[in-house]
Design brief:
Layout: E1 5-10, H1 14-25, E2 29-35, H2 39-48, E3 52-53, H3 56-62, E4 67-70, H4 77-86, E5 91-94, H5 101-114, E6 118-121, H6 128-138, E7 145-153, H7 174-190, E8 193-201, E9 212-219, E10 224-230, E11 258-262, E12 266-269, E13 273-276, E14 288-291, H8 299-313, H9 321-340
Parallel strand pairs: 1-2, 1-4, 2-3, 4-5, 5-6, 7-10
Antiparallel strand pairs: 7-11, 8-9, 9-10, 11-12, 12-13, 13-14
Helix pairs in contact: 4-5, 5-9, 7-9
Bound molecules: nicotinamide-adenine-dinucleotide.
Length: 363
Amino acid sequence: MTASLNIAVIGAGAIGRTHVETLGRMEGMRLCALADPSPAGRALAESLGVPCLPDAEALIASGLAQAAVVATPNETHLPVSAALLRAGLPVLLEKPVAESLDSALRLVAAAEETGVPLLVGHHRRHNPIIRAAHAAIRGGLLGDLVMATATCSLAKPASYFEAAWRRTPGAGGPLLINLVHEIDLMRHFFGEIAQVQAFAGDQRRGFAVEDTAAVCLSFEAGGLATLCISDAAVGPWAWDLSAGENRARFPAHAVSAHHYAGSRAGLSLPDLTLWEPQGEPDWTRELQPRKLPVAQGDPYEAQLAHFAELIRKGGEPRVSARDATANLIVLDAIRLAAETGQAVRPDLSALERFPAKPNGFAS
Ligand SMILES: NC(=O)c1ccc[n+]([C@@H]2O[C@H](COP(=O)([O-])OP(=O)(O)OC[C@H]3O[C@@H](n4cnc5c(N)ncnc54)[C@H](O)[C@@H]3O)[C@@H](O)[C@H]2O)c1
């Protein structure tokens, strides 16, 4: 029998606790330690009966961990993860890969130089619903992808913003924290983004970061999409509030939040309903809905299982630092478009020195 992998969780906040709970359900891996300087982190470690180290350096020095999940604030992703990689410890790093393009590129370079696995936590890509949707879209069930729309209304409570980083420019805001998931999925389904246009506002909350944004995307391969996001708007039309991915934290309303319309059929998510015409498409005839088959599965568990496989067998991560950095480049383009009122082309040339590698999953 293979020995259990000793995994540490660094940053025992909101999502760190999800990883801790998920690790508790996994076979072949176990939580060996937490690293978090806060009293809440120490209290959690005590309740779990595992050691709590103050930071990544102390964790590395302790020799307790074979790999780590990094769930610290965005602006710490580079120093924490680079230290782990340089110490030879594989990393599952929460999204976004970093707070800035410069930090993200340094992290891509660290992963390349060390050859140690670095998986970025765009967990939705491990969701069976997304995998089934990807197979349907890339397999041509919708015909050519013509347009898509994703909504993301997340009425976050005041307590959420007590952590200062969540309202600090360069570290927080719903573009970097939440929209990065939607960008990642749009790239996953449509391919690279050719141009963006955007509006962003901070009027609802009055923080230094935006609270609401509307974004238009055009894709290199053709097709258009709109994304509408707010952390101050009430409504169930958000992936987080409909997909049932993290039921300990979020309800799962029976609505769709993403709509993809192709030349032959449409697809709504997360309900995974395909809307097809009988015969040739004709807007005057009723479409037939059909649920696509999907196996049940927890994306956080699937993500950790993939991480364990990378540690044990090697291979390319399903979401590499390079891939996640392309999401940041698109976000920077969205910010610039919102500031200038101009259409902006995301410039992926900074990634050219890091060749894309096939990851063994249809991506
Ligand atoms: N995949 C997802 O859906 C998802 C969901 C939520 C958050 N996130 C990401 O996870 C990260 C953490 O977000 P959160 O909402 O859990 O934050 P949080 O503020 O709730 O928790 C962060 C924790 O990290 C600790 N910490 C801070 N600096 C540290 C350091 N240098 N070393 C060790 N611990 C440190 C803090 O004490 C705190 O306990 C962010 O990057 C965020 O974007 C991802």
